[in-house]
Structures are given as C-alpha cells and as structure tokens.
Specification:
The complex is a heterodimer of chains A (262) and B (258). Chain A contains twelve helices and no strands. The longest helix of chain A is centred in the C-terminal third of the chain and has 26 residues. Chain B has two domains: 155 residues, 3-Layer(aba) Sandwich (Rossmann fold), CATH 3.40.50.300; 62 residues, no CATH class. Chain B has a six-stranded mixed sheet with strand order 5-6-7-3-8-9, sandwiched between helices. Chain B has a three-stranded antiparallel sheet with strand order 2-1-4, with helices on one face. Chain B starts with a strand and ends with a helix. The chains are: A mainly alpha (262), B alpha/beta (258). At the A-B interface, helix 7, helix 8 and helix 11 of A face strand 5 of B. Chain B: GO terms for molecular function: ATP binding; ATP hydrolysis activity.
C-alpha cells in the first residue's frame, strides 16, 4: 500500500493535519499566529545548517525552530513589541538561511522543496518521522490539555490552581517546533502557519467547546490534505499550495455558515 | 497555623517598587478585606499570594493542604475560544455533573450551563467565576474587586453569598474592594494598604485610625457608623431613633451583611 506515492502523500498530509489541529487551536486562541509563522520561517536556517553539518533535516529544523521560539519568548517585554521582535528575528533567520544555503556549493539543493514542500516525494522514512512527530505533539498537548487551557484563559487562574503558565508556554513552544519540522516536507516553511491556523479557524463556527474545535480542525485539515492532493493530481497544480487552497475554501464556507446563522 | 503568612515581602516591577515590608498572615475562616487607594499594590498583593508575581525579597509561607479559590477582577475570553460554562467549571481539576449543577445553583444561575462564556453579562460572569473558585472546595478564597460591574443589589447579593460560603465551608476569605461601607462591615479584619500595611485591625479600629482617615477621609467612617446603627437597631427594639431616616438610607449594600 505504501508503495504508491499518492498514498504516502495522503498519509503524510493527514499526519501533519492531526498534529497541527490541537496546536493550531492554541495558536488561534492565544493569538500566536505570527509567532507560528516566525518559527516556521526560522526553520529554513535549520535546513541549511543540517545540510552543511550533514545531520538530519528534522533535527536541524527542530533545533533552530526551538531556539527561535525560545529567543522570542525570552526577549518579549524587553523594550520591543512582540510583532517587531518577530519580524526582525523571523525574516533575519529566513535571510540568513537562504544565504547559508547558497554557500553550500558542493550540494545541489532544490530550495523550492523546502520553501513550498514536496509532499509527493515523501519516502517511507519521512512518513515515519512525520507520524512519530505527530504522535509526540498530540501526546504532549493531550497530556497538558487542561493546564494549557487554563493558562490560555488566564495566567492568574492558572497560578491559583498551582499551574505555572510559563511552563505550559514552553510545552506549546516545543510542540510548535516539532510540528514545523515535520510539516516542512508537506507544505514547506512558507505555508506551515496556514496548516496551523486555517483548519482551526474554519472549525471555530462549528464548535461549542475547545475539544470539539480541536477535533473538527483535525478532520477539516485531513480533508484539506486529501482533497488538495486529489485536485493537484487532476489539475496538475503544486501539491502543498493546493492543500492550503482547499483549507481556505473550507474556511470561507464555515464562515459563511456562521454568517447565515447569525 | 496560618493558611498563608507573608514576611517582609517586597515586590517591584522594574524600577518601580509596588510593595515593601509587607507582613501579614491569614488565619483559617476569617474574612479579611484589603483597602487602599489606586496603585497601592492591592492586586499585586493578591497575585503574590497565588504565586503569580516574583517577590523581590521576604518570603511567603503557604500551609500544606492550602487550596486557593481565586476570583479575578474580570476575565476576558477571546471570542475565538469556544467555551461553555460547564466546560469552564471543569477547568482544570475536573468536576462531576452533579458538582457543576450544585455550583451553578449556589451561584444563583442554574440555567447557564450550556451557554457560551463569551456571551455572558458582567454579573453572570462574576457569578460563574465565583462558582468555579468554589468548586475546588478552597480553604482560602481570594477576591479581587469581584463586584466590579455589578449594580448595588447585585453586589449586595454577591457579598451575601460570600458570607454564606464562609459560614457553610469555613474557608478564609481575602477580598479587595472599593465599596468600603459594605466590605468594612462584612469583615472580621481590615488591612489598609498603601505600598505597605498602613494599619490593620477590626473595621472599627481601622476606620478610626488616622492613617485610614488620611487616605479615605472621615466620610467612610460615617458610612460604617450608619451600618452599625442599622445593625444595632435590628437587635434592639427599644432604640428610639427615627425610622424614616433609616429608610432614606435604605442601601441594599448594608443588607448584604445582615
């Protein structure tokens, strides 16, 4: 079954959708959309470093994404607004990454594959990395679910219940770095934030509780992945962007539904 | 043993010193009110008690088995976060359906369980916040201007509920309030804060203290006297004061404490 590249691609897309759904919900609730974007952009520097050091792309991307996210968390509130800081760090990391890749003259790299993903070239090994990463992210968020929700509602309520919101923030940051690293192959660093935010945002009008929103987001993300791949096959369009397009259309539909109800 | 004891605590944000040399202790079952002008560090003190601010110096000792129920000034829930009232009440510890129904009943809002948190009115939100704080069966309840945004009957009912809860569960209550005449009369002890503890003691002692009168003037002392007067009356039928006068000051807030 895994011999078929379309099957592998669909499974990879579903894996990323499952990890992105609960995490993306938190990104939406905590208004971290730009934070997710910045972490993802920084990952291209990780890709360049991994190629230079000949280590696994996954490890390099996780390390740089994590370093980026931690730096932003530490620097926030020290004289710069969050969005300024993210703008500086994200685009610097992206630029340094692109420059670093150009120094790697010995290796031929298809940069486009990292910027926009190359889901049709997912190997069995990639698939294993994606699914292990997805299980890790879902496990991490599921384990801390109540504490994360309480911290998201109000850090003070969390403190009063004996929860340290900073620790929960770190857990989200770690989950974000892992998700970015596993999603590079599927949608590329430029569109990862779309996989995080669009299914979660599309699920919002259909949900009454946080749990429903995360589950519906996972379902919508998986549908986007499969339908996006199908349309890419039929219309001969790039796969990663096609997946995001389907997700965007679903978002438009659920938003219109809410408009009709209201 | 004290539930919480604070010794020589100082707290600052950057170069600003908010609290200094604060020493106080909260005993089981007492109702303590913290009063003080704006910027006197009341909220910071409460947040220090729950462990939400880093203290600069001094120490805070919490009794083992301390369960804190915290009611913030207000809670903004992002409209992107779907959250029913009953789901909110189950955060983070979890509660049974029966516990939730009982908590909503006690809070006087039995029909709200399926409503979205973001659609609640200010008064409903405060009641839900109190219901959630009580679900964990706290032995220390902390209220930060919990009646902000409530009208007078609403806040009177709110304080009445606090007293009922204290009577039923024996939990200690520490509250911040601007409604001096209400909280002063409902408290066992008042702490007057202005960066440090200016004075503390029973409501009578504090309202007569020069430090307190320097901060709030003597008018609030009058309000307290009115309350005591009213209260005496209910126990002493022979008093000969003017009832019309009493009704002209028929402040629901004073009833809260009865």
């Amino acid at each position: 079954m895994l011999d078929d590249f379309m099957t592998r691609a669909a499974l990879a897309g579903i894996g990323v959708a499952c990890a992105a759904a609960p995490l993306g919900s938190f990104v939406v609730w905590r208004r971290m959309a730009y934070f997710g974007d910045a972490t993802a952009h920084a990952a291209i520097l990780g890709v360049a470093l991994s190629l230079a050091l000949q280590i696994s792309i996954f490890a390099g991307a996780v390390a740089v994404a994590l370093a980026m996210a931690l730096t932003v968390t530490l620097l926030t509130g020290r004289g710069y607004a969050m969005d300024t800081l993210l703008g500086v760090l994200a685009h610097s990391a992206l630029a340094f990454g692109l420059v670093a890749v150009s120094f790697l003259s010995g290796i031929r790299i298809d940069l486009m594959a990292y910027l926009f993903g190359d889901i049709l070239a997912v190997s069995r090994g990639d698939l294993a990395v994606i699914w292990v990463g997805a299980v890790l992210v879902v496990g991490l968020i599921g384990w801390r679910w109540s504490a994360l929700l309480t911290s998201t509602l109000s850090p003070d309520l969390a403190h009063a219940s004996g929860i340290d919101p900073r620790r929960e923030q770190l857990i989200l940051t770690l989950a974000l770095a892992i998700t970015v690293a596993v999603a590079i192959k599927v949608v590329g660093v430029l569109l990862i934030a779309a996989m995080l935010i669009i299914p979660a945002a599309a699920a919002r009008p259909l949900s009454r509780t946080p749990e429903q929103m995360a589950l519906i987001a996972a379902a919508l993300g998986a549908v986007s992945a499969v339908a996006g791949l199908q349309s890419a096959y039929v219309l001969d369009t790039p796969a990663g962007p096609s997946i995001v397009c389907v997700a965007a259309i679903i978002f438009a539909c659920t938003s219109a539904l809410r408009g009709l109800r209201a | 043993m004290s539930l919480v004891s604070v010794q020589n605590m100082s707290v600052g944000y950057g170069a600003t010193r908010v609290l200094h040399d604060v020493t106080l202790a909260i005993e089981p079952g007492e109702i303590v009110t913290i009063v003080g002008p704006n910027g006197s560090g009341k909220t910071t003190l409460l947040r220090a008690l729950i462990g939400a601010v880093n203290i600069g110096s001094g120490r805070i000792d919490r009794a083992t088995g301390l369960r804190i129920g915290y009611v913030p000034q207000k809670l903004h829930i992002d409209p992107t976060l779907p959250m029913t009232v009953s789901r909110f009440l189950r955060l983070p510890g979890g509660a049974t359906r029966a516990q939730i129904a009982a908590a909503l009943d006690r809070a006087g809002v039995p029909d709200l369980s399926d409503r979205q948190m973001s659609g609640l009115s200010g008064g409903q939100m405060q009641r839900i916040l109190l219901a959630r704080a009580l679900i964990g069966q706290p032995n220390l309840l902390l209220l930060d201007e919990a009646t902000q945004g409530l009208d007078q009957p609403g806040s009177a009912a709110f304080y009445r509920q606090i007293e009922e809860v204290r009577a039923a569960t024996g939990c200690a209550v520490v509250m911040i309030s601007h409604e001096l005449h209400v909280v002063m009369s409902a408290s066992d002890r008042v702490i007057c804060l202005n960066g440090h503890v200016c004075c503390e003691g029973t409501p009578e002692i504090v309202s007569a203290a020069p430090e307190y009168q320097a901060l709030f003037g003597t008018g609030t002392g009058g309000a307290l006297a009115l309350y005591r007067h009213d209260h005496d009356h209910s126990h002493d039928a022979t008093c000969g004061h003017d009832h019309a006068h009493d009704h002209s000051h028929d402040d629901p807030a004073t009833k809260a404490a009865e």
